[in-house]
Amino acid sequence: WVQPTCTINPTMEYNPDEPLRNDTTGSSFQKYQLGVGGCCDVFTPNAGYWCGNHTQGGGAFTYRIPSGLTYDSSILPNAPYANPEGAVIQSWRPGHWSSWMFAVDASKYDAKTSTIIFSKGGFQGAR
Question: Minimal CA–CA distance to 59: which of 85, 97, 86?
Fold first, then answer.
């Protein structure tokens, strides 16, 4: 994966002490949390639970997506591509519990370095 180009951490975070839900198993999901900005700037509104730095459960992390993909023939055996216009990359998340889809930015495709840059996508993933 090519590293994200967005700012990983939210611009603002809200983690109030109340309300407190102290009846959860293992201290998870006890406090309200909301992150604003960062990689969530692609959404309207640009805020949500997954935008914050205190997400919990199931390998949780602050929302971020790769900006592209560097591949070899084991990943994309039909590459290089003469014209990637309109191409979509779909990939499973670890554990196969959801998937991401990305539109390929044909103007930034580089067959020499085996790099595909995305123009949009990564909004799926049950997050």
Answer: 97
CB 53 within 8 A of CB 76: no
**Structure confidence by residue, pLDDT tens digits, 8-20:** 899 999 999 999 9
**Nearest Cα to Cα of residue 65 among 34, 31, 89:** 89
**Under 8 Å between Cβ of 63 and 51:** yes
Specify the pTM.
0.80
Q: pLDDT tens digits for 22-63?
A: 888 777 888 889 999 999 998 899 999 989 998 887 778 888
Is residue 27 within 8 A of residue 57, CB to CB? The reply is no
Judge contact between 42 and 48, C-beta under 8 A: no
Beta-ladder partners of 14: 34
The SS3 assignment for 110 reads: strand
Q: Compute CA distances 64 → 20, 55, 93, 97, whole Å.
A: 27, 13, 13, 17
Question: CA–CA separation, 5 vs 38, rounded Å?
Answer: 10
